[in-house]
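Hi C.,

You asked whether I'd gotten around to modeling the 132-residue construct. I have! Everything is below, sequence then structure, no commentary in between.
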Amino acid sequence: MKKLIFLFVGAGLIIAFLAATGTQEKPWDVPEKYVSMKNPTDAGDSECLDIGESLYKKHCRSCHGSEGFGDGSKAAMLDTPMPDISTDEYKAQKPGVKYFQSFIGRDDMPNFEKKIPSEEDRWCIINYMDTF
């Protein structure tokens, strides 16, 4: 969460700035059924990657940005720090952990199970995000 802080400087001049509080992301509590989940799709399948790209642009880009840096047009409006999903740290997570974070969600990250009902399509998005 960000707080607006006012500093009074000199003859009534007010300087305001946003101070980030709690910017360190809290750990995800991922249920075991997701931790052990395997990606059933072929990560290199071009048709799956095309589907993933299309769905990412529709549902994810506005917050996570075109290249996954967390710099989408809506990112600054959220209370939750936007992760950079292009990092090796993100990519090293188990497939089911990425699935849980991406589609079950929490806080500002919405649940996408109804918006993206096809489990195969969800995995295609994860495969696409892993190309960043």
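If it helps when you're writing up: The beta strands are 2-9, 13-20.

Thanks,
B.
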